[in-house]
Amino acid sequence: MTKYNFCAGPAMLPPAVMQKAQKEFIDWQGLGVSVMEISHRSSDFLALTTKCEASLRRLMNISDEFEVLFMHGGGRGQFSAVPLNLHLDDKPAVYCENGVWSKGATSEAAKFTAVESINVRDDEQQNGQFSIKPASSWELPADASYIHYCPNETVDGIEIFDVPSHPSAPIVADMSSTILSREFDVNQFDLIYAGAQKNIGPSGLSIVIVRKTLLEREGLAKPGILDYALEAKQGSMYNTPPTFAWYLAAEVFEWLEANGGVKAMEEQNIAKAELLYSYIDSSDFYSNKVAKHCRSRMNVPFWLNDESLNDKFISESKEAGLLALEGHRIVGGMRASIYNAMPLEGVQALVNFMEKFAKENS
Ligand code: PMP
């Protein structure tokens, strides 16, 4: 039976990438050893990192005005790194809050710097559905060390499709669960970061795309491994990087380029999301609580209207080969994460199962 993994992260990776990695596992490029057993400073590994960065730059159209860093510590590592590097003594960091992860970023930053948080949700205006105000109406203060927001809230299933702007403060985005899922104009941002474990590769690695001029900020005293300027100077090798995760990221980027790049992924992601949301909307057995204009294409939370059937739904979906559909513990219900690696057939299999389950339990 084909199994489909809907885990929010660590998430499924493209099967073609996993098969290639399996083949190369103990003998990479004829070296007679695994890629995880060689020096990160060897010419073979350095060739991999050069290729990996070039590939990401092509995929996201990243100009020379930006540095690309491969760091440790996932998304939360960056929750700390951002304030430590971008702090200014005389201006607050502004955090736009729209769900669980943006709030998490706010509380981490508040340990290090003065923070002003802004609620960008607009739930009352949408008959109780979760909703987001247009970015152009966010009340951003005139003075800020930076503006932080989260374009895709993985837990809440809320995605923001417009980009805030500010006359002077840099725009920082936590793209952990949306990077490479749709086209972004990187030039609208000053710092983009993402934990790898959704659309990039294994957990632990984080990618940081930072405008070079921001590296001149002194920020606060910080651990070397979270220091952007130091990592940029050292080619992301101030200390031993997570080499196997970096290798797999390079393979995922190669797979993306061979499969039409971000534009093709975006088209497929729209089709997958439409299939699932339109079924949920047409059903009186399931519901989604997010206003249509800000529904996530990557993480689709849904609720059974009769929640006493939750355990049955989870156990029968598992038997049907549909894995990890439990909602996040904070919000409950169900959640299907449908990142780039999830094929349309996986979403169709989920919809077929949901239809059958609804019929049998109505
Ligand atoms: N930001 C977002 C949007 C996330 O979805 C997550 C994890 N799911 C994080 C940050 C935290 O990432 P990590 O667990 O790698 O620290």
Automatic annotation (TrEMBL):
Binding-site positions, pyridoxal 5'-phosphate: G75, R76, W101, T154, D174, Q197, N239, T240
PROSITE patterns from the UniProt entry: AA_TRANSFER_CLASS_5
Annotated pathway: Amino-acid biosynthesis; L-serine biosynthesis; L-serine from 3-phospho-D-glycerate: step 2/3; Cofactor biosynthesis; pyridoxine 5'-phosphate biosynthesis; pyridoxine 5'-phosphate from D-erythrose 4-phosphate: step 3/5
Catalytic activity: 4-(phosphooxy)-L-threonine + 2-oxoglutarate = (R)-3-hydroxy-2-oxo-4-phosphooxybutanoate + L-glutamate; O-phospho-L-serine + 2-oxoglutarate = 3-phosphooxypyruvate + L-glutamate
Domain of life: Bacteria
GO molecular function: O-phospho-L-serine:2-oxoglutarate aminotransferase activity
Positions of L-glutamate binding: R41
Protein name from the UniProt record: Phosphoserine aminotransferase
Protein source organism: Pseudoalteromonas shioyasakiensis
